[in-house]
Amino acid sequence: MNKFEALGLSEAIVKAVNEMGFETPSEVQEKAIPILLNEDTDIVALAQTGTGKTAAFGFPLIEKIDSKSRITQGLILSPTRELCLQITNEFKNYSKFIPGLHTVAIYGGASITDQAKQIKRGAQVIVATPGRMQDMINRKMVDISQISYCILDEADEMLNMGFYEDINAILSHTPKEKNTWLFSATMPKEVSTIAKRFMRNPVEITVGHKNTGSKNVSHEYYVVNSRDRYAALKRLSDANPDIFSVIFCRTKRDTQKVAENLIEDGYNAAALHGDLSQNQRDLVMKSFRNRQIQMLVATDVAARGIDVDDITHVINYQLPDEIETYTHRSGRTGRAGKSGVSMVIVSKSEVRKIKSVERIIKQNFEKKDIPSGEEICQVQLFHLANDISKAEINHEIDSYLPSINEVLEDFSKEELIKKFFSVEFSRFHNYYKKSKDLNTSNERESSFGNDSGSTRYFINVGEKDGFDWMTLKDFLKDILEIGSDSLSRVDVKESFSFFNTNAEHQERVLSVFEDFKMEGRKVNVEISKDSGRNRGGKRRRDNNGGGFKGKRRSDGFKPRSKSRFESSDDRNSGGGRRDKRKRSDRK
Questions:
Q1: What is the pTM of this model?
Q2: Can you give the residue range of the structural domain that contains 179?
Q3: GO cellular-component terms in the record (predicted)?
C-alpha cells in the first residue's frame, strides 16, 4: 500500500501524489492528515518552513470538499500573492483527477473583476491574501458565509505584516460552526492570541520544538565592519562556487541596490521585492528556478512565495527586525531532506542579536571568518579541477584536435595544466592580491548586555525649521522607529541641533539619514564631540541667547508630519529598516 494511501487518502489524490513524485509523507503530513480526515476539529500545526504544510492541509481539505456543489466551501488565507499563487497551483495539481473541483486565487495586483468572475463561475476553494479578500467582501463580490473550513497559512507572517484586523473582519463573515486550521512556522504571542479568539479547543501538532529551525540547516555568522558588508557578501559567494542562494535584505531599496551591485560585478543575480510588477516577479522566479540566477536578493515579504528545494545557502545581509522572521529565512534552505547553510553578516553592535536568535531557534551559531583572497583562489581552482574531471567529452571537438595539438605541441603536460589553470587563477588572484582582512576582532561575551554607552549626534535642522526639543524628539522617534527611552539630550539651536541615542542605534541613525531630505534640502547627521551639557547638567543655550524652546514657522509647518520629508528609503517595505552603515564608512 502507498504510504500516502495508508494515511487514508482517496485513490484520486494518491494518483496525483504519485504523478507529482511524492514518495514519503513528511512529519507534519503524517501527524495532521489523519486527524483532519477523520475529525471535524480545529487544529494548530507548528512546523518549519519547507516541511510540506500545504499538502498537510491541502489533501484533507480536497477530500472534504463536495466538488458537485458550486458553493465556496474552503477559504485559505496566505500572506503574499506569491504564496497565494503557489498554493493555488499546488491545489490544482492535487485535485487534477477530481472532476469539477475549482480553486481560485484572489490577490492584489490583478484584475479584481476577473477574479470575481472566476468565483461566480464556481470556486469550491478560494486562496486569498487578506487585503484583497477584505476588499472583495466589502464590494460584495464574494460570499464566504457557508464555508466549512478556513485555513490560516503562515499565520505568524500574516500577523507580522499587520493583517490582524483584516483577518478578524474576514472571519466575522464566516459561520461559527466552521473548522479553522492554523498552520505556522513559529508561535509568537500574536498567533496564540488569534488561536484563542477564533478557534475552539484546537488540537495542537508540533514538528520539532516551537519556533525551532530545521535540523538540516547549519547556522554561521561573520563579524565585519559595516562598510565591508558588501565585500564580505562577495567573498562568501566566491568561496562557495556552487552557491544557489537567497540573500535577505530588510528593505526594497537595499534589495535593489545589492542586486544591482552584484550584477555589475559579474554575478548572476536579481532582485525580488514589492516594487516589481507581477510579470517581472514571475520572470525572476522562473529564471531562479531554472538556475539562470544564482543569487536572488529578496525582502522577507517577497520571499514568502519562494518554493525551491535546492537552495544551498541563505545569506542574511541584514538581520531581520523580528527575530522570529529568521526562522522563515533559514527555512528557505535545507528542504526536502537536503542540508543547507544559513549565513549572517553582522557588525560588532549586532552580535548580541545572534544570542537572541539562538534562543528562539534553539540552535547554536558558529562564528566563522570571512575567507581570505588566497583561500578563495584555492577553492576556485579545486572547483575548476573537479568540474574538468567530471566533464563529459564532446567528440565534436575531435576535428579541431590536430590544429590545437599543433599550437600546444611545445608544452609539457605540466606546463599545459599550469597555463590552463592560470587563466582562472589570475582572475581571482589579481582581484584579491591586495585585499585586506575583512574580519573584525570580536569577543562575543563583551558585546552582550553592554548598552550603557550613548552616542551624541549633530543634525543640521533647528528652530528655523520649526522644531523645539519636544517636536524634534518626536520626529526622530518616528523616523528612526525607536522608543522614546532610546532618545535623550535633545538640544535645539537656531539652525542646528544635538541629540543622543543608545550606542546600539548608531549605525541605524547614520544609515537612515544617509540621503534624507527635508523640503529638498539634505539633512546632515554626524557624530558629535559636543557633550551637549555643561557641568551643571542643564541644557546649554546658544551664543545668541536663544533658549532650547523652538519657534513655530508662520506657514504652520509641523515637524512631526512625515509628508513634508522626502526620503528614498521605503520603510514600509520588506519588513524592516535600512542597512546600518557608519558615516565614516561611506567615505
A1: 0.58
A2: 5-206
A3: cytosol
